[in-house]
Design goal:
The structure holds 2 protein chains of 2 kinds.
Chain A (H helix, E strand, L loop, with lengths): L2 H10 L1 H12 L3 E5 L5 H6 L3 E4 L20 H11 L8 E5 L3 H13 L4 E5 L10 H20 L5 H24 L9 H11 L4 H14 L11 E7 L5 H8 L3 E7 L4 H4 L9 H11 L17 H11 L4 E7 L3 H16 L4 E6 L5 H15 L1 H5 L1
Parallel strand pairs in A: 1-2, 1-3, 3-4, 5-6, 5-7, 7-8
Helix pairs in contact in A: 1-2, 1-8, 4-5, 6-12, 7-8, 7-9, 8-10, 10-15
Chain B lengths: L6 E2 L5 H17 L6 E5 L15 E5 H9 L2 H13 L8 H12 L13 E6 L4 H11 L5 E5 L10 H22 L5 H23 L10 H14 L3 H19 L2 E2 L6 E4 L10 H7 L3 E3 L3 H5 L4 E3 L5 E3 L3 H4 L6 H15 L9 H14 L4 E7 L9 H10 L4 E6 L9 H15 L8
Parallel strand pairs in B: 1-6, 2-3, 2-4, 4-5, 7-8, 7-11, 11-12
Antiparallel strand pairs in B: 9-10
Helix pairs in contact in B: 1-8, 2-4, 3-4, 4-5, 6-13, 7-9, 7-13, 14-15
Classes of the chains: A alpha/beta, B alpha/beta.
Chain lengths: 381, 438
């Protein structure tokens, strides 16, 4: 099967995929909030980690549990859980990140049946020299909890294999991303997003097989479309295909992004060392940070900004769409400075606020105007 | 004045509380008149550490400053709009927007120009803490900045590893402070600051504990003006002495059955900060004989507590009461960290709704409440965590609960008339009370 079609199918039928996986393997599934969860340890235990995503529908069931100041994505995730969509999940966990998903996690622990749950104290000060040893200790406790739950030890060999599978996944997705630098990328932004998001939903070994096939096939793939304006998209959690597909019908292509459903998820690999848990801890502290963790202990500058600018340059970006989930504080705080930074560096930006459902018509008009601005010289000279 | 069920009297320490607060903001602004330094941080920033630097040094803690802006409806809106004009979203922390607006407008809430801090010494547990002063530093064109992480786990999971994590960061902080200011940390000062911190936090908790009595000696509206000193500078002798005095007076009020609300007939708890520009809504409920006794927020924003063998919340003891003599710098930093991580139960909700529910239902039972009236606060995510779960937990435990939505420091998000109407309905229809005063 065509890998991209398979990614789309899994994305659409993600719950069926996880249920089938359980039947096929007889193993457990853990639903998780936030990509700071060290999936490698769960995978080493034979567990399938599945990221909890919203359903892009009004989160009505969440209302008695989270009032509407909390981000719509988190409320949507909880609402999906309360609807029973994740009833196949044997466990649920979160890594300390922003406060919004923590509200959904807290309600989930109380109201949605599960065997095991875990709050992992991921350090906030990831750039502090104290963070990595602290996280190593947290990972040791986490590993112990998983072992006690499953009644089996996670060996170094298990960890090595999991790290290998995860690093391969990251490496292969980066290979695909290399092709997005081409003048005519053989994969659209919406397709690339589906690829990354399904990596958060599927058994990584199976995902890797599809990626290997994709890496082979992509160089010969010809898309029946113009690349048009090369865009990047930056901001909060985003798996809103409707929006990406709409924009990509306007003679433009998302060639790169900085999202936790995109490059931010897989950009950094685990660098092997004898102490496997320390190696994993190092990776999660050193990864491209979520804005909530993008500050230094004695240096307020953000590491994410130069990284985004580098991406923009490498991928020959002509404009950036900066989005945030409504009420997403970490991004809201960074966005004015980020826009100023990008614009000073010659990258025009356009800002949009997302809800669980997006007003496609209104956004279309706004994006069209932004694209016209970028093409102003070509259009009006 | 009509006769009331209990005797009432104003607090004797009231004037002193106001004076200390006023002096605090003046001292900070005027620091550069002499050779004193100014530092910016948060209400939870372990002030004992920077206050141990040689010479004179004055803090400005961001949240109480944001609340001061919030209590001034005109200045508040000007500051919010200034921040929004720079592109900051209207739903961000209202204190933070007010603080940034004060910088952008170059106006100090207590008169004059914005007094720029010489350095930042901040802690981080809520999403906004580190980011707040990251942006402040940016708006000011760069201020030396240090921020440490206290998100090490909930009070019931704190061990040596978690304490080490924070203490090691504090050592990094000391290095930063000495390098940035050219001044040394004086261990004698640090040790005394830690003793004082324990006194402030413990005696505030003990004063709050006395509100378990009927009638309650303190009402929450007054308590806001009392706990604030601990958010300004809990490590100072002046503040520690104030809490000693407050505790003695509160005990005296209990002994003499002096009530905060003369017609006390209904005891409630709240949650999160109130809408500061509309504190009169708390006075309004007193017309029904309702006394708001406090909340997890009011009790433990500075107060330190522990859970005793019977599962009850009890105040932390001072170091003198525990018979602990601080030996050296390391001992001081460890004791300070242990108190904050284990005793500050206000941090528990950061790790889950169940933790908050458990604490709030203990409070409900120990403080003998009849109901809860929760300010669903759009202005502060940190304190508004799990509010709806808390509502469900209290209701499950048999307590009637009313919620009213607002914002602690953005009056554009508070509908006073609607809130009063909701209160009338709740107190008459659900609680069966009648207005005793008009």
């Amino acid at each position: 099967m065509d890998p991209i079609e398979r990614f789309k199918e899994v994305y659409e039928k993600r719950h069926e995929y996880a249920k089938d996986w359980k039947v096929k393997t007889g193993r457990k599934v853990v639903a998780y909030f936030c990509t700071y969860v060290p999936e490698e340890i769960l995978y080493a235990a034979g567990v399938l980690p599945v990221r909890i995503l919203g359903g892009h529908e009004p989160p009505h069931l969440a209302a008695p549990h989270m009032f509407d100041m909390w981000c719509p994505f988190s409320r949507d995730c909880l609402s999906q859980g309360l609807q029973g969509k994740y009833n196949y999940a044997d466990g649920v966990m979160i890594a300390q990140s922003c406060l919004h998903p923590r509200q959904a996690f807290g309600a989930w622990q109380i109201h949605i049946p599960h065997e095991w749950d875990y709050f992992l104290c991921m350090p906030n000060a990831v750039r502090s020299p104290r963070a990595k040893p602290f996280l190593r200790g947290e990972l040791a406790e986490f590993k112990k909890s998983v072992e006690e739950w499953l009644g089996k030890a996670i060996t170094d060999k298990d960890l090595d294999q999991a790290i290998e599978v995860y690093n391969t996944n990251r490496y292969l997705m980066k290979q695909v991303y290399e092709l997005r630098k081409l003048d005519n990328p053989p994969i659209t932004g919406a397709e690339a997003m589906t690829m990354v998001v399904t990596s958060q939903l599927m058994d990584k070994r199976e995902h890797n097989e599809l990626l290997q096939q994709l890496v082979k096939e992509l160089p010969n793939r010809k898309l029946d479309r113009e690349t048009g304006i090369r865009l990047m998209i930056v901001g909060s959690e985003d798996d809103d295909h409707t929006f990406l597909e709409m924009v990509e019908k306007l003679n433009s292509t998302f060639v790169i992004e900085d999202h936790c459903t995109g490059s931010r998820y897989f950009w950094n690999e685990v660098i092997s060392e004898k102490d496997r848990l320390q190696a994993i801890a190092n990776r999660y502290c050193d990864r491209v940070p979520c804005p909530s963790k993008d500050w230094g202990p004695d240096d307020p500058s953000r590491l994410r900004f130069p990284h985004i600018l580098n991406l923009a340059k490498e991928y020959k970006v002509q404009g950036a769409i900066v989005i945030q989930q409504k009420f997403c504080d970490p991004h809201e705080i960074d966005i004015p400075s980020l826009r100023e930074f990008l614009e000073k560096n010659g990258i025009p930006t356009h800002f949009l606020e997302f809800e669980v459902t997006v007003p496609v018509g209104q956004f279309r008009i706004r994006v069209e105007a932004f694209l016209e601005q970028i093409r102003a010289e070509e259009l009006f000279v | 004045m009509a006769e009331t069920k209990y005797q009432t009297a104003g607090l004797k320490v009231w004037r002193k509380a106001k004076e200390i607060r006023e002096k605090y903001y003046k001292d900070y602004a005027g620091a550069h008149d002499g050779r004193a330094l100014r530092w910016g941080g948060g209400a939870w920033s372990f002030d004992a550490v920077p206050q141990a630097l040689e010479g004179e040094i004055y803090p400005l803690t961001e949240e109480p400053y944001g609340a001061s802006i919030g209590a001034n409806p005109v200045f508040q809106v000007r500051c919010q709009e200034a921040a929004e004009g720079k592109g900051y979203a209207r739903d961000l922390c209202a204190y933070m927007r007010g603080y940034w607006g004060s910088i952008i407008r170059d106006q100090y809430a207590f008169g004059g120009k914005w007094p720029k801090p010489d350095f930042i010494f901040q802690n981080h547990i809520c999403c906004s803490h580190a980011k707040w002063l990251q942006v402040a530093s940016e708006l000011e064109g760069g201020i030396p900045y240090f921020c440490f992480d206290v998100g090490a786990g909930p009070y019931n999971k704190i061990g040596e590893r978690q304490i080490n994590y924070v203490v090691e960061q504090l050592y990094d902080g000391i290095e930063f402070l000495e390098k940035t200011t050219g001044r040394k940390i004086v261990d004698e000062k640090l040790i005394q600051n830690v003793y004082n911190t324990y006194i402030s936090n413990s005696l505030w908790s003990k004063s709050c504990e006395l509100n378990q009595n009927i009638p309650a000696p303190l009402d929450e509206k007054s308590m806001y003006s009392l706990y604030v000193l601990g958010t300004l500078q809990k490590s100072s002798k002046e503040v520690a002495d104030f809490y000693k005095e407050l505790y003695e007076e509160t005990k005296e009020r209990v002994a003499n059955k002096i009530a905060a609300v003369g017609n006390e007939q209904c005891r409630i708890i709240g949650d999160s900060q109130p809408p500061w520009a509309f504190l009169r809504v708390l006075r309004y409920m007193e017309k029904y004989g309702v006394v708001s006794l406090g909340s997890l927020y009011t009790f433990s924003l500075i107060g330190w507590w522990r859970i005793d063998g019977k599962g009850n919340l009890v105040p932390y003891k001072t170091l003198e009461e525990q018979g602990i003599k601080i030996k050296d710098r390391d001992h001081a930093l460890r004791l300070l960290t242990e108190g904050e991580l284990k005793g500050k139960l206000m941090w528990a909700p950061f790790y889950g709704a169940s933790l908050k529910n458990e604490l709030v239902t203990k409070i409900a039972s120990q403080w003998k409440i009849d109901a809860a009236m929760i300010h669903v606060n759009r202005g502060c995510e940190g304190t508004a965590q799990h509010q709806m779960e808390m509502k469900l937990a209290l209701a499950k435990a048999g307590f009637p609960v009313m919620t009213y939505e607002g914002n602690m420091a953005d009056e554009r998000e508070f509908d006073e008339a609607r809130t009063l109407r909701l209160m009338d309905l709740f107190l008459t229809e659900t609680m069966g009370l009648k207005k005793l005063e008009w």
